[in-house]
Design a protein that fits this description.
By secondary structure, the protein is α+β, with helices and mostly antiparallel strands. Helix content is 20%, strand content 23%. Among the domains are: 37 residues, no CATH class; 131 residues, no CATH class. The strands form 8 sheets. It has a 7-stranded antiparallel β-sheet with strand order 9-8-7-6-5-4-10, with helices on one face. Strands 2-1-3 form a 3-stranded antiparallel β-sheet, with no helix packed on it. Strands 17-18-21 form a 3-stranded antiparallel β-sheet. 31% of the residues are buried.
Length: 469
C-alpha cells in the first residue's frame, strides 16, 4: 500500500504494509500527517517518491556486477562542499553564479543538480534537453567530452529518478544518499579527516556523564530509553535544502527537546533577541564544515575563566525508522536546516560533564557562561506576604560546573532589597529599557509539570522578552 502524506509542508508517498500502518501513524519521528491511502492497483502513477536534491552527497551504484569508473560517492557541487572540490569543480560552481546573469543557453545544465566524484575524477550532470543524466570526464558538458555513462544506457548504473513537472526536471525518488561512512571515506581521500571528540564521544557516557555512569551503571534514565543513535549534523536536515550553521537567529527558533534544560533554552532564546551575539562572540566558526569540528567561547563561572570548548558534530537522536526522512534529535530541536542550537547545547553539555547535568539549572548561569558577566540579580516572591513583595536574594557560592549546576543563597538579611509589586514592575521596566537579560521561573509550590490557570507550567523556566509599560 502507498501512503500519501504531508512532510514538512510537502506531499510525499511511502510504501507501507497494512500490518505496519498503525506503527507508521504512531511514530512521531516521521513528521507526517496521513491524508489518504492509495493502492498501486488503482493508482499506478502514484509511485513512492521523495526528494533527493543537489545539496546532499549521493552514491551512484550498479544493479549488478563490480563497481566501475562511473560509480562511487559523488559530492554535490555546492558552496558547502567547495573546499573539498578541486579547482575545476570549483570553477563549475563559479560558472553557475555567472550563468544566472548571462543566461547562456548552452550552459543551462549548470542550473540543475551536479556532482563530482573524488574517487574517479568524474562529473555527473543533468542534460535538460535530452532529460538524462551523464557521467563525463570534463567539467564542460557543452564542449567536447567523453561520456562514461548516461541514464537508460547499457552500463546498469542506477541514476537518480527524474520527474518532469511542467518542463522542469527534478531529481526525485527512493534513491540512496551517501551513508555517513562512505562520505567520511570520500572526505579522507581529499585530505579531510572527520573529527571525533575523544573527550566527549558519541556514546552514553556523554549523556550520563562519567560520574553517573560509574556510580549507577545499571540505572537507565528516561533520556536513554528507546535507544540513542548518533548522527552528524549534516545528516539532520531536510534534503531539499543545505544544512546551515546559522539561518535566522530568533527567540522563536530556540526549541526544547526531551531534556529538562528549559532554563538553558529560555536563556538562549533571550540572548537570541540580539542575533549577532552568537556568531560574533560565542561561535568560533561562521559556517558548517565537513570536518565536523566546532569551537565555542564559554565562561566557566565556578573557576572565573574563559574556556574554548571544542566538540564534534555527532548529535544524539532517536533511532531512525525506515519510514523517517531524517533523524530526529532527542534534545534541542533544529529550526529548519540550521544546527547552531544543537551544537551550542552540546558545548554546554561538555562543559558541565554530560547532557544530564544540564537538567534543572538557572537562566542566569547560562548568561554568565555566554557573556562572562557575573552581575546576577535574583528576585524571589515572598511567601504569605500581603501586598505582594519581592526580595533580592544574593548568591553566596556557585557549584562547580563539572557537577550539578546551581548555587547557594546567602542567608536572608534585613539588608536585602524589598520591592512591592508596582515598584518591582517599574524596576523590570527600567531593566528592559536597558536591554538587560530577564528570565522567570514558575514556582507556586505545586506538582512539577502542573499547568496553572494562567498557562504557566510548574517548575519551568521562561524567557522574558518584553515588560508591559
Amino acid at each position: 500500500m502507498t501512503i500519501c502524506c504531508r512532510r514538512n509542508g510537502k506531499l510525499a508517498y511511502t510504501e507501507v504494509n497494512q500490518g505496519d500502518m498503525m506503527d507508521v501513524l504512531m511514530r512521531n519521528e516521521i513528521r507526517c500527517i496521513p491524508m489518504c491511502f492509495l493502492t498501486n492497483h488503482h493508482f499506478p502513477t502514484f509511485l513512492p517518491r521523495r526528494y533527493i536534491c543537489k545539496h546532499v552527497p549521493i552514491f551512484l551504484h550498479k544493479t549488478e556486477g563490480p563497481p566501475c569508473s562511473t560509480t562511487g560517492c559523488f559530492l554535490p557541487i555546492t558552496a558547502q562542499y567547495r573546499d573539498l572540490l578541486p579547482a575545476k569543480a570549483q570553477n563549475v560552481l563559479d560558472r553557475e553564479q555567472k550563468h544566472y546573469e548571462t543566461k547562456n543557453k548552452a550552459e543551462d545544465y549548470l542550473a540543475f543538480s551536479k556532482y563530482y566524484c573524488p574517487e574517479t575524477d568524474m562529473f555527473l550532470f543533468f542534460h535538460p534537453v535530452k532529460s538524462q543524466w551523464k557521467v563525463i570526464n570534463s567539467e564542460n558538458m557543452h564542449l567536447k567530452h567523453i561520456v562514461k555513462a548516461f541514464s537508460e544506457g547499457p552500463t546498469r548504473v542506477v541514476f537518480p529518478p527524474l520527474v518532469d513537472f511542467q518542463g522542469h526536471y527534478e531529481t526525485k525518488g527512493q534513491y540512496p544518499g551517501a551513508e555517513s561512512q562512505e562520505l567520511d571515506s570520500a572526505l579522507q581521500k581529499r585530505g579531510v579527516i572527520p573529527f571525533v571528540d575523544k573527550d566527549f564521544p558519541p556514546s552514553d557516557v556523554s549523556i550520563l556523564g562519567k560520574h553517573a555512569l560509574e556510580s549507577a551503571p545499571k540505572v537507565t534514565p528516561k533520556e536513554l530509553k528507546g535507544g540513542v543513535s548518533w548522527y552528524r549534523a549534516r545528516e539532520i536536515h531536510d534534503g531539499d535544502f543545505p544544512v546551515r550553521l546559522f539561518d535566522k537567529i530568533a527567540p522563536s527558533h530556540v526549541l526544547q527537546g526531551g531534556l529538562g534544560d528549559c532554563w538553558l533554552i529560555a536563556a538562549i532564546s533571550v540572548v537570541a533577541e540580539f542575533p549577532d551575539f552568537f556568531p560574533k562572540y560565542v561561535f568560533q566558526d561562521s559556517q558548517c564544515n565537513c570536518e565536523g569540528k566546532y569551537s565555542f567561547n564559554l565562561f566557566d563561572y565556578s573557576k572565573q575563566e574563559w574556556k574554548t570548548i571544542t566538540v564534534d558534530d555527532f548529535l544524539p537522536c532517536y533511532p531512525k525508522s525506515k519510514y523517517a526522512e531524517m533523524p530526529i534529535p532527542k534534545f534541542s530541536q533544529p529550526n529548519g536546516n540550521e544546527v547552531w542550537l544543537l551544537l551550542l547545547e552540546k558545548a554546554f553539555a561538555k562543559l558541565v560533564g554530560g547532557y544530564l547535568n544540564l537538567k534543572a539549572g538557572y537562566a542566569g548561569l547560562a548568561w554568565m557562561m555566554l557573556t562572562g558577566c557575573m552581575d546576577y540579580n535574583r528576585w524571589i516572591l515572598e511567601k504569605g506576604v500581603t501586598p505582594l513583595t519581592w526580595r533580592r536574594r544574593p548568591i553566596m557560592m556557585f557549584h562547580s560546573t563539572g557537577q550539578h549546576l546551581g548555587f547557594d543563597y546567602a542567608a536572608p538579611s534585613d539588608s536585602d532589597p524589598l520591592y512591592k509589586e508596582e515598584d518591582f514592575l517599574n524596576y523590570l521596566r527600567k531593566c528592559a529599557k536597558k536591554n538587560y537579560l530577564i528570565g522567570a521561573v514558575a514556582v507556586h509550590g505545586g506538582a512539577v509539570e502542573a499547568v496553572h490557570s494562567n498557562g504557566l507550567i510548574e517548575g519551568h523556566a521562561y524567557a522574558v522578552l518584553a515588560v508591559s509599560p
